[in-house]
Specification:
Number of domains: 1
Radius of gyration: 25 Å
Structural class: mainly alpha
Order of helices and strands: HHHHHHHHHHHHEE
Strand content: under 5%
CATH superfamily: MetI-like
Number of strands: 2
Largest sheet: 2 strands, antiparallel
């Protein structure tokens, strides 16, 4: 009965996930069809190449791949780190009982609601030679050309667009923390900083880790933002997704599929390592304390005060 009930879901997952992955893996084993230099017509169909497309990626001919790989890694790590810090700050602000809190939450979530393509166009106008960015810094920077400034432009636009997503998930984690824990901490004399480090961050860690994981997986597949904001073929911001798209657009489906498979493995390894090493509890079934559900975790608040140094908080 269980297998029968989950079979429709497994069928859909097989059609939209398993089949494309296996198809890309199969296509990566072939090279592009040969072209007759005299006539310009295709001589024959795709020829089997085995692992040649993969070996060429990691050989001396794969300089473009390694450039895209380091660009992808740098843009991902930098943007996700900034999004985590800014998103946590947004969540703390939205969690406060302020007048007009609903308007604050709505305004913070507006950038995340804007489609990425529209966001990239908006920031392209901002980073234009005569745009707002150069007007504010009172200088002329060619943001959308080759160079480190192009990477900075992509990072700024990416952080502006997706930091609210981290803030939204973190806010959900903040709202399940009991106010009694904070009251007990205030009684023991814990200040705002102490409460943040000893209560808020430990208890919001599961939600924050899930948000960071989702952002890592999404940023590693970054394509539309740098493609529209900076443009294709720019070495400074070319990512693995852009490289695979460029190969496919030039009818080199074998190498394009090889790049896509490598990117898939890269994303999979990052997700696996993140879950195993940092303990992102995606299923919500991690047990704490003595291993029983609902076990209580002790949080040290004010050591050395001789009374109630530790308060119990439901993990």
């Amino acid at each position: 009965m269980a297998a029968l009930l989950v079979s429709p879901t497994l069928l859909v997952l097989g059609l939209v996930i398993a089949y494309p992955v296996l198809s890309a893996l199969y296509t990566s084993l072939f090279t592009a069809p040969g072209i007759d230099p005299k006539t310009g017509f295709v001589e024959d169909g795709d020829s089997f190449a085995g692992l040649d497309n993969f070996t060429s990626i990691f050989s001396a001919a794969g300089d473009r791949f390694w450039n895209a790989f380091w660009n992808t890694s740098f843009l991902t790590l930098t943007s996700v780190a900034l999004e985590t810090i800014i998103g946590l700050g947004m969540a703390l602000i939205m969690h406060q009982a302020l007048r007009g809190r609903a308007w604050v939450r709505a305004s913070i979530l507006v950038p995340w609601a804007i489609p990425t393509a529209i966001s990239a166009l908006l920031w392209r106008w901002i980073f234009d030679t005569e745009g707002i960015a150069n007007t504010i810094i009172n200088t002329e920077v060619l943001w959308t050309t080759e160079g480190f400034q192009a990477q900075v432009a992509v990072i700024i636009a990416e952080v502006w667009k997706t930091a609210p997503f981290v803030g939204l998930l973190t806010l959900a984690g903040l709202q399940i923390i009991s106010e009694e824990v904070y009251e007990a901490a205030r009684v023991d004399g814990a200040g705002p900083v102490r409460r943040l480090w000893s209560i808020t961050l430990p208890l919001v860690k599961p939600a924050l880790l899930v948000a960071v994981l989702f952002r890592l997986l999404d940023a590693l597949r970054m394509f539309d933002l740098p493609y529209i904001l900076i443009g294709p073929g720019k070495e400074s911001v070319e990512t693995l997704s852009m490289l695979a798209q460029d190969e496919a657009a030039n009818v080199r489906f074998g190498p394009a599929s090889a790049y896509a498979v490598v990117l898939f493995l890269y994303v999979f390894l990052i997700a696996f390592a993140f879950i195993k090493l940092l303990g992102a509890d995606l299923l919500g079934d991690r047990q704490s304390g003595n291993g029983k559900p609902g076990a209580r975790k002790r949080l040290s608040l004010m050591p050395g005060n001789g009374r109630g140094q530790q308060k119990e908080a439901t993990a």
